[in-house]
Structure to design on (762 residues):
């Protein structure tokens, strides 16, 4: 296993554990404001200090990790659930009108800058975590659809698919039983990358106030709240900033590492 | 009868003018940009911030402390029965386009403001006027349907400034007034420029020119002041940054009071807020000091009713609604909400609302009231909350001076309908005797406090950050205004 994979997996697991832990325990209750105790520097009773309402920042980071991961995970889930079947369908009906429709539809979605459309969606339907998930999820669909189709097309030319066709299997069965298992590696790697992009998108949306609404904790909003406090209490901005940085870095390293690790060609070369 | 002599103040302004040597221009930043430049047609405060006393003048005006002093009217007589006001106008006043300001312009302005199709945002100020008569070019007589102790105060508002029929068509983009500064240029989204009016009828201002800039983002505001891009920021949006400016010898920080009663606006017609017990419970759930400390970093004075604490008629009614969560829970139970309820909390952009909203949400949650917070931009807030009344709770600062009368309007967005209060307000309008007025105002404050119409939070403070050499800026904001007539640079 490469160093990338180990560091990436380590960071990702750390944040996932923090998020999981927040369901049963956080150092402090983040819904209880303790204003006399505001803007405490890190290191005292509050390990990472307190924010402008006297809330414990470590607890906020843990709850925020939960929001980020939930939003990104569901968004990737939407992308995969819709994108992969569409891609498989397009590959199976390669060259048909249906293929054209699916792929041009994807191009259409791709043509819009994703964050701008996400802003539009949340502005029209109201700012909430659910709308943020939908907005981010929609833009994951063409990514997975295109990748799936691209990877599936050469497989359709392969002999083992030909054998399956000769046996009389339907295109749908071949897609599920033979194509899908052969592109899973690719989907896992892409999923990891999209996951990190989802975390960034969620942070961006909540930074401009269109993500999860208070009192739900969110890293992006922690950053936004800290904007005017940077010069007097830098930790209020640095802590959520580093949380986003480390989580996204971890996921990217994990994606890179997984690609190398799962790719048979590189694996053979290494052996 | 009131007679005013020319003040020593104008002489002092003249002195400053001679001592100000090199620097005779100023760049002033405010948060919001005016949507148009017609103070008699638009409701936005930013219009007055830029133009009041600088470009436009009324018959009377507010001074820096909120007192009513003479404006274009140099003196006035009030008839025995209090219904006829005779204003003697200043002589030799011209508008910036060269036309003469006389009684005809006053008649035009007042009639325009009170006309059926008038778009004036404060038509109520002119409601009692039955007739405006020109006696001679410098004398105008205003007849009221009944005595109105507030009339001179009403005429001081930015909505009551004197405009000319010759220039009214383009007033929204090219304001022509009688003030000490003329409007030069407006680059929308960026800045607005004023130049000294060489033909000003009164004492000439010390400044040759002034530039207004509009910076709404608190971080950008901080950067602009720190980098000395602006000479003064009136209404600095981030109170947490003030200690840094105070510690920096390059700057001075002025903290003053405003007429802004910051309230937890409550939709009195929407269940369960139509129940006074529920409103009282909300009032007891609120911890004002936590809001002032948490949202405003200590700036602000707690209020127990809708009235400015620095006003002599203010009654301290904080004891009606001390922070007492147990009492709030008991009141909710008495009202039949043992398990609490859920409502909406719609917040406009200023930090008093956004931060205050999070704090209030936590305080209400503590007594069992869940709130769904929605952050709105101003335009959305005006539409959803102010016009459509589609809200449970909201937080907003009512910055109009002496605006307790809004509680007599059952159609106003918080929809308080109390006939007793409406009668009281009519009585107040008909009273000119100061003691009698104060008694009635005290009664009015007590009624709305004991009816818990809204959650009364605090009187908004205004912070001005300026370069150390700037002098003569208003500390308080008796009305939305950045009066530059007395501003100058120290040597």
């Amino acid at each position: 296993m490469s160093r990338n994979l180990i560091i990436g997996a380590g960071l990702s697991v750390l944040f996932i554990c923090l998020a999981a832990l927040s369901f049963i325990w956080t150092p402090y209750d983040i819904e209880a404001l303790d204003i006399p105790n505001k803007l405490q520097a890190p290191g005292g009773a509050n390990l990472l200090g307190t924010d402008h309402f006297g809330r414990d920042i470590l607890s906020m980071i843990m709850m925020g990790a939960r929001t980020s991961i939930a939003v990104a995970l569901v968004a990737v889930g939407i992308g995969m659930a819709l994108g992969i079947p569409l891609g498989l369908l397009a590959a199976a009906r390669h060259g048909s009108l249906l293929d054209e429709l699916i792929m041009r539809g994807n191009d259409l979605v791709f043509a819009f800058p994703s964050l701008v459309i996400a802003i539009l969606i949340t502005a029209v339907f109201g700012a909430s975590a659910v709308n943020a998930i939908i907005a981010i999820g929609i833009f994951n669909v063409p990514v997975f659809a295109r990748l799936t189709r691209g990877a599936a097309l050469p497989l359709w030319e392969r002999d083992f698919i030909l054998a399956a066709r000769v046996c009389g299997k339907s295109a749908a069965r071949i897609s599920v039983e033979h194509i899908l298992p052969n592109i899973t590696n690719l989907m896992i790697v892409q999923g990891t990358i999209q996951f990190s992009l989802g975390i960034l998108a969620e942070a961006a949306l909540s930074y401009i106030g269109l993500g999860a609404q208070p009192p739900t904790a969110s890293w992006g909003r922690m950053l936004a709240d800290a904007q005017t406090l940077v010069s007097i209490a830098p930790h209020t901005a640095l802590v959520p900033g580093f949380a986003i940085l480390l989580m996204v870095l971890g996921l990217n390293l994990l994606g890179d590492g997984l690609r190398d690790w799962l790719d048979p060609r590189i694996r053979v070369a290494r052996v | 009868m009131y007679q005013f002599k020319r003040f020593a103040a104008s002489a002092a302004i003249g002195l400053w003018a001679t001592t100000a040597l090199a620097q005779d221009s100023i760049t002033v930043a405010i948060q919001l940009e005016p949507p148009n430049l017609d103070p008699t047609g638009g409701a936005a405060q930013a219009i007055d911030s830029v133009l009041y006393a600088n470009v436009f003048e009324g018959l009377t005006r507010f001074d820096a402390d909120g007192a009513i002093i003479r404006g274009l009217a140099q003196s006035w007589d009030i008839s025995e029965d209090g219904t006829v006001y005779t204003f003697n106008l200043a002589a030799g006043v011209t508008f910036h386009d060269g036309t003469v300001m006389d009684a005809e312009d006053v008649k035009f302005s007042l009639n325009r403001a009170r006309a059926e199709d008038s778009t004036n945002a404060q038509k109520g100020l002119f409601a009692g006027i039955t007739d405006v008569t020109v006696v001679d070019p410098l004398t105008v007589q205003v007849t009221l349907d009944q005595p109105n102790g507030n009339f001179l105060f009403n005429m001081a508002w930015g909505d009551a400034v004197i405009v000319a029929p010759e220039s009214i068509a383009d007033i929204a983009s090219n304001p022509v007034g009688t003030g000490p500064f003329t409007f030069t240029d407006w680059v929308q989204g960026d800045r607005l420029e004023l130049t000294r009016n060489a033909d000003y009828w009164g004492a000439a201002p010390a400044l040759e020119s002034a530039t207004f800039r509009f910076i709404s983002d608190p971080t950008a505001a901080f950067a602009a002041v720190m980098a000395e891009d602006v000479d003064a920021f009136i209404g600095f949006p981030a109170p947490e940054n003030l200690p840094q400016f105070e510690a920096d010898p390059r700057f001075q920080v002025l903290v003053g009071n405003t007429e802004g009663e910051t309230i937890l606006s409550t939709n009195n017609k929407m269940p369960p807020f139509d129940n006074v017990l529920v409103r009282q419970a909300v009032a007891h759930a609120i911890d004002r000091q936590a809001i002032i400390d948490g949202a405003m970093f200590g700036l602000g004075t707690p209020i127990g009713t809708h009235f400015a604490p620095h006003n002599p008629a203010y009654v301290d009614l904080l004891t009606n609604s001390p922070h007492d969560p147990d009492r709030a829970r008991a009141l909710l139970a008495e009202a039949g909400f043992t398990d609490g309820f859920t409502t909406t909390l719609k917040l406009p952009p200023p930090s008093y609302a956004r931060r205050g909203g999070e704090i209030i949400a936590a305080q209400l949650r503590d007594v069992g009231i869940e709130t769904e917070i929605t952050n709105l931009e101003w335009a959305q807030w005006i539409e959803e909350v102010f016009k459509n009344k589609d809200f449970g709770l909201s937080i907003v600062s009512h910055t109009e001076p002496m605006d307790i009368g809004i509680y007599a309007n059952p159609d106003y967005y918080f929809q308080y309908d109390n006939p007793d209060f409406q009668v009281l307000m009519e009585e107040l309008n008909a009273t000119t005797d100061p003691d009698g007025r104060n008694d009635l105002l005290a009664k009015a404050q007590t009624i709305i406090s004991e009816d818990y119409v809204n959650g009364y939070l605090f009187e908004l403070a205004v912070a001005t950050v300026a370069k150390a050499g700037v002098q003569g800026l208003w500390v308080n904001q008796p009305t939305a205004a950045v009066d530059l007539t007395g501003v100058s640079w120290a040597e």
Q: What stands out?
A: Chain B touches chain A at residues 218-219, 222, 238, 240-241, 243-244, 290, 293-294, 355, 357-359, 361-362, 365, 372-375 (CB under 8 Å). The two ends of chain B are 42 Å apart (CA to CA).
